[in-house]
Amino acid sequence: MRYVSTRGSAPVLDFEQVTLTGLAADGGLYVPEAWPRFSADQIADMAGLSYVETAVRVMLPFVGDSLDEDALRRLCEQAYQGRFAHGAVTPLVQLDHRHWLLELFHGPTLAFKDVAMQLLGLLFERFITGAKDHLTVVGATSGDTGSAAIDALAGREGVDIFMLHPRGRVSEVQRRQMTTVLAPNVHNIAIDGNFDQAQALVKAMFNDPGFSGKFALSAVNSINWARLMAQIVYYFYAAVRLGAPEREVAFSVPTGNFGDVFAGYVAARMGLPVVRLIVATNINDILHRALSSGDYSVGEVTPTAAPSMDIQVSSNFERLLFDLGGRDGGALSAQMKAFEADRRLQLSNSQCEGAATLFTSCRVDPDEMALALRRTHESAGQVVDPHTAIALSAARSAELPGDVPVVTLATAHPAKFGDAVERATGVRPTLPPRVGDLFEREERYDVIHATFDDVTAHIAELATPRS
């Protein structure tokens, strides 16, 4: 398996190289040179498999010669056995005759990011063993990526992690899950700005030769292909349990950075019978506008009770545009550079038509979110978080064929957003016992101005340069 950049001019890499590299040298994102394809029989053979064995079968085509099957299985066992509070890792919960929740929050930090990050941390450790350079991981988070990445990398040798979060724009639980990890290789940075600024700073670090040349940089955001690869697994795991490949399935995904729903797109390209991917946004609706009218233009970020979706620039959308635009790296590079200059982009006809075959989208306002929280509790006895409620609202409003089952991705434990849940339902969700002392732990983080010079100067003081 070889990986190419969406912008066409970066070196072609193997899986190990692409995992350690993160962002491509030309500013693009890496994708497989071709999508692997499973037959209906191969998908049917996944019935009854454990999550670990499903993960091995789904991910094996992507790792190429970088890992053999036994090595991949050992990493998956280490990532998923004992680190997740549910034996199924990502269990399905039935809401009614048609709607299901796919619970992705049973990992150590109570969010879907754990599913990929626990594996990514192990991949980093394996691939940097014996390497001459210390790895410097930099990332930006709107809430859940940071805590999942820090949990996965804390205390691991040969790697430091620097995580940027927008000060005051993540929930208190999300912040504390990052800032109470006091391992010496963990560095939390609160910037005076929003997530889009944090994400732009991280991309700028990779694209600046003076900085990126000084450190062995890598990424844990979903710009890193290995993150997305691990997320493809639970689409197969859920769909097979609902009758795939004989039965089509729809998925509703609460979406900010487009990584989780792009993993669903890849699953469909691999042969999984996905009839629809419902892209659920809050009032920060750039993806809804892009998919419904082709208008991918940046607006102001409005803080909401679903902070992980308070995003205007969705990094992984570039991967979709590349695939739908005929995989023309030169054309996509020009399109993205114009977007970066003008903060607006009009999808081409082929991109719009290609997206319409699989995607539909929905913008959910705060009142609709609160209504979905309340109705889910009253009708099904399920307490969900605001992001999941947005996806449930979108799922129930989507026009879908026949009796296709609809799986809504439950991306976070409701206790991470206790205030919003309690306002809507009257129920105060409690943290699981394994993180119940979170509010008693010591915090440690640095507040830095959201400028390239200030952030990179801070990181340069603490990071280990290339040898």
From TrEMBL:
For this protein, the record's InterPro entries field holds:
Ser/Thr_deHydtase_PyrdxlP-BS, Thr_synth_N, Thr_synth_N_sf, Thr_synthase-like, Threonine_Synthase, TrpB-like_PALP, TrpB-like_PALP_sf
EC class (word): lyase
Signal peptide limits: none
Q: What is the official name of this protein in its record?
A: Threonine synthase
Q: Which CDD domains match?
A: Thr-synth_2 (cd01560)
Which family, according to UniProt? Answer: Belongs to the threonine synthase family.
Question: Which keywords has UniProt assigned to this entry?
Answer: Amino-acid biosynthesis, Lyase, Pyridoxal phosphate, Threonine biosynthesis
Q: What residue intervals traverse the membrane?
A: none
Catalyzed reactions: O-phospho-L-homoserine + H2O = L-threonine + phosphate
The organism named in the record is Stakelama saccharophila
Gene name as annotated? thrC
Positions of the Threonine synthase N-terminal domain: 2-80
Q: According to the UniProt entry, what is the EC number of this protein?
A: 4.2.3.1
Tryptophan synthase beta chain-like PALP domain: residues covered? 88-340
Q: Which cofactor does it need?
A: pyridoxal 5'-phosphate
GO molecular function, a single term: threonine synthase activity
Query: PANTHER family this protein is in?
Result: THREONINE SYNTHASE FAMILY MEMBER, THREONINE SYNTHASE-LIKE 2
- Asked if the keyword Lyase belongs to this entry, the reply reads yes
Pathway annotation from the record:
Amino-acid biosynthesis; L-threonine biosynthesis; L-threonine from L-aspartate: step 5/5
